[in-house]
Amino acid sequence: MDNTNEQEKQIKELEERANNYALLDAKDGFFITTAYPGQIISDYVVEGGVTTKTLLAADLPFFIARQPCEVLWVAESHIVAGTDAGSVTMDIVKLTSGQAVASGVSILTAEFDMKSTANTPVQKQGKDLANTRQLKNGERLALDFTGKLTALAGVQVTLYLKNLARGHYK
């Protein structure tokens, strides 16, 4: 009866799991969410029998860091998938003050495929996140879409971040 060996095995297995799960290290983290409902028409112009519509921008910042923090986990789900013949993707980019979304630096190693199965959450953490996932005070996060977003709708994004202030709460 080698009960000690079995217990040591179980403890080792639990320790390995704990060390590989980044969210356990972030007990004081916080969630943020943002949404992209779909193409919103801001203006219709009818001139000479031709109707022209203007769409609102999709690439908008959604978070400003109050203190240094790090993105540990990102999830995305959409109700209607993109259907354009070309690629339809979404990136999450980090922006400094005055920087446009198109010039942002990705925090992901690969963009989300917005043509993936609808109503199916896709999660990224650890190796799926780039080394640029740490934010300084005043830096922002934004969604950066590529491709034609005509059919894409109901996008919901959730991020889990942890403060890097090392116990100094604000």
Task: Characterize the structure shown.
The chain is mainly beta and 170 residues long. It has a single domain (27-163), classed as Jelly Rolls (Sandwich). Helices cover 10% and strands 41% of the residues. The chain has one helix and twelve strands; from the N terminus they run H-E-E-E-E-E-E-E-E-E-E-E-E. The strands form three sheets. Strands 1, 5, 9, 10 and 12 form a five-stranded antiparallel sheet that branches. The termini are far apart.
Task: Record the SSE blueprint.
Layout: H1 3-19, E1 30-38, E2 41-47, E3 50-55, E4 61-64, E5 69-77, E6 89-95, E7 105-106, E8 112-113, E9 122-125, E10 134-135, E11 140-146, E12 153-163
Antiparallel strand pairs: 1-12, 2-3, 4-11, 5-9, 5-10, 5-12, 6-7, 6-8, 6-11
Sum up the structure in keywords:
single chain, 170 residues, mainly beta, 5-stranded antiparallel sheet, 12 strands, 10% helix
Global morphology: extended
Cα-atom radius of gyration: 21 Å
Count every beta strand, where a strand is a DSSP E run of 2 or more residues. Answer: 12
CATH architecture grouping: Sandwich
* Order of helix and strand elements from N to C terminus: HEEEEEEEEEEEE
- What fraction of the residues are assigned to beta strands by DSSP? 35-45%
Helical percent range? 10-25%
For the record, the count of structural domains works out to 1
Spatial gap, N to C terminus: 54 Å
